[in-house]
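In full, the data:

***
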Amino acid sequence: MKMDGGVASKSRLLVVMLSILLLVGSGCAAWKNSRDTSEETGEKKSEVKGPAPVYYDFVDILIPAELSLVKKSSFVYSTPSFSAGVLVFEGYVQGESLVNFFTTNMPKDGWTLKSSFRYRRVILSFEKNERSCLVTVTEFPLKTRVEIWVAPQMAASMP
């Protein structure tokens, strides 16, 4: 008889565990269906957008917000009518996305892409009015470094 009691208690335990599993499973399915229904009724999920790009010392060069200014490596010379120098930024951003960002946004601020070097690091050369701008993008294992050099163009001399 002891043998039958052991089998009966194991059977009861199995029935209880299966019941709990069914309850948990049906609860998850009901929760998923309620989420799907709320999406179908027009409830919008909040869109996740990154922070907006910003301008720093050069008012016509937009910088992705994911980059942080490295002040100790940067220097800018400013007068009321002109700014020149270098701004250095670092961040956890893919190099190719930064190249795409600058080649897309620099023309919006009046810059013209004149040349580029690619692969080991990327160097983009832009011109605007009487100024030149070099944007270098270098990827490292844990960060990407961007340098933005702005300088006046030298007047062509006649021989």
Notes: The chain has two domains: 1-46, 54-152. The first helix runs from residue 2 to 40.
